[in-house]
UniProtKB/TrEMBL annotation:
It comes from Paenibacillus albiflavus. It comes from the Bacteria. This is Nucleotide pyrophosphohydrolase. CDD domains: NTP-PPase_u5. SUPFAM superfamilies: all-alpha NTP pyrophosphatases.
Length: 123
């Protein structure tokens, strides 16, 4: 299994290969793109989609499928949108040279020391 930082490099290299970094993007734009993926997941939820439901869109047939029939069938649903969030975060970390694996490990260790329901914030 690949490490988080290997996945970061893979995601970023794919974005570079697909031309998404031919022109530099602002950090604000990158965060907005991450946010848009979260909004798409929320929209699927608001539309009554089950949180674990995955379906596939085939652009050529202009139809929704339960199983992919070709490699160009796009996975859709909340799991796919959550994956898009992670992929965009990985891409950003690859762009800026962030050691995401270290940041996650450090933050999780810190969070383990926090009190129950810390912060008291409501949704």
């Amino acid at each position: 299994m690949k490490t988080i930082n290997q996945l970061v490099q893979d995601a970023h290299q794919n974005a570079v290969n697909k031309g998404w970094w031919e022109e530099d993007r602002s950090f604000g734009e990158i965060i907005a793109l991450i946010h848009s993926e979260a909004s798409e997941a929320l929209e699927d939820y608001r539309n009554g989609r089950d949180i674990t439901e995955v379906w596939y869109e085939n652009k050529e047939l202009k139809t929704r499928l339960n199983d992919p029939i070709t490699t160009d069938c796009k996975p859709c649903g909340i799991p796919s949108e959550l994956a898009d969030i992670v992929i965009r975060v990985f891409d950003a970390c690859g762009r800026y040279g962030i050691d995401l694996e270290k940041a996650i490990t450090e933050k999780m260790a810190y969070n383990a020391t926090r009190p129950q329901r810390h912060g008291g914030k409501v949704i």
